[in-house]
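Hi support team,

I submitted a single chain yesterday and got back a structure, but I'm not sure I'm reading the token output correctly. Could someone confirm the output below corresponds to the sequence I sent? I've pasted both exactly as they appear in my results page.

Thanks,
R.
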Amino acid sequence: MIAILKRETLALLQTVTGWLYIAATIALMGLYFYAINLGYGDPKFADTLGMFPYLILITAPVLTMRAFSEERRSKTDQLLLTSPISIWKIVVAKYLAPAIVHTATMVIMAFVPLIILANGGTAVAENYVAWLGFWFYGLCALAIGVFASSLSESQVIAAVVGFVMLFLGFMMPNITSLITDTGWFGTGLKKILGSFDLITPLLSFFDGCISLTGIIYYVTIIALFLFLTTQVIQKRRWTVSSNRFSLGAFSIGGIIIAIALAVFVNLAAGELPSTISQIDVTASGLYSMTDTTKDFLSKLDKDVTIYVIGTEDNVDTTVKQTLSKYQDSSSHIKVEYIDPYVNPTFFQQYTSDNISMGSLIVVCGDVSKVIDYSLMFTSEFDQTTYQSTVTGYDGEGQLTSAIQFVTSDSLPVIYELTGHNETALAGEFLSVVQKANATLGSLELLTSEAVPDDAGLVIINGPQSDLSEDDAQKLIDYIATGGDLLVTLNYEAPSSLPNLEKVLAEYEVSMVPGLVFENDANMYYQSPLFMIPYVEATTYTSTSGSSRVFDPYSKAVSYPEAASGVAFTPLLMSSASAVAKADLTNVTSAEYEEGDVQGPLTLGLEATKTVTAADSTEGGTESAGVNSELIIFGSDLMFTDEADQMVPGANTTLFTDAVNSLSSATDTVVIPAKAYDVSQVTITQATALIWGILFMAVIPLLCLGAGVFIWYRRRKS
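Hi R., thanks for writing in. Yes, this is the structure output for that exact sequence:
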């Protein structure tokens, strides 16, 4: 076997064929790499690899066409067929030779993610997972090419047959999408044809997931076609040795068993829970469920059906994977796909509005909620190009919110305090409240006798003027019943807000006079006022603890080291070199000056106060201890879309964590949108051109030159 492998490998490398395969693949990859990764700054190698799987349809048959065809044409196959070596070893050796050439090509391509990393890209794991998927795809194509080569003594016919088979596998998703999967015949036909879908398993790798089912599929296809090749060769050996043209019952039975086994293995792999079959390596966990959702689903005790408007073949891959994980995580969740062409009016029993293809309808009993497809992705509009770019995925957030809505007996009510020039929630931060299924109301304390009893949370977002004494007392009374507050401060507000400070004093929290300047260059962006503080790892920052949030124009708060009945948890901290400057009109430097408050300073804080509330019992009224929570941040500008775009999604995540913790009494679950990796490749045009020329021209020409030189030298000798 080793001797055959060595001979076949040298045959590919001592002719132009092997070198041509390497040169063509690297050249085309280099073209897309230069245009996509270097030209547009795209950090994802998958976007480059995804542009040329079709190249394998041509190069793989060319690389493998001579494997058995040339042996048959020159009659040297009779030496192999009558040799004592097993057919299986001959086939494996013939296959491994082009596989080595393909692997050598992939080794050269493996340097591309390192180039992307060196120039600012951060999607390292995703890039190498895409590389792994393309390697498996190529190996699978080579196995089919070897099989095609065994069918004819003509290399041209072998190449054409190999191309046709690979083209069918490449186009199979489009072919099966034309079949209506209604009835046993349509469903069965789609499954049979879909078993030769070579491209769909590759897409999981391109999406940033290590697909166990994809690996199993490619390995079984490789094994199956190598086995079919052995059967063709076995037929040939039988013909040569006995001078008869007969396949034999053993071969037919073996082929049937092999195909059945391959189908069974892949069907079994397809039944694996997505939590096992898909390993998400994306930076933002696009295809993973957060622990918050997992915990929520583990407590789900009502049956929920998620109707998908569209066929399983046409639904977005990311959405489909998310749905699969939900279904695998709870026995109470069932997913059904509704073909709108077969049942065009299905959605009308749940909504009178038109909805997009791919939309979801979440139903529990008589309660339902529609999630339009457009809501599952966040986007950003570029005013200069007038184009909208998808920036994140919100499928988990929308689904968890909808399931909570249809299964909850009571939903929270959140009030925004008004009347003091507060900043109204907007954009993604308003979406967080909406995903909490909360009724968001305005609270004007001047016209209200008290904070409403149904208030699950009161938000005081950056007031620019002080509360009245009456307003402050109503909030203090609310705190005494166990009410929760989310407060942000406004740097443009007067330096003294005595009534707001009176409310904060209930938690023994006070405002530090002045504005915070950060002097650690690693903790601000462009200006000492644009801080990127430490995010302390706490239960209140469970999903944002590893992120860097953007905190512009922030004030600081202080609290005692110990307080009776109040527990403190810092959330955001400045460095020790930060200072709070009270006299902003006479600031001459961002550094420490006399009268400044020296850091480290607390820019975000959670305070939990144990209060006594009335507890009605049959025997009368007793007192019971309950908690009132305050979360306060030094800047209301943190919770704006403009600030959130500076650290894609991190500020939204922090706000979500705060809402989740404060509304825990009503079991509200809010999952923030997951931002796509937007760490762009930053490279000069000159450097990009050098890398482009290297991969588009230099390496391919060197490979072709090596092939021609070796071929010419061998011919002359």
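A quick pointer for reading it: The CA atoms of residues 240 and 316 lie 53 Å apart. Let us know if anything else looks off.

Best,
Support desk
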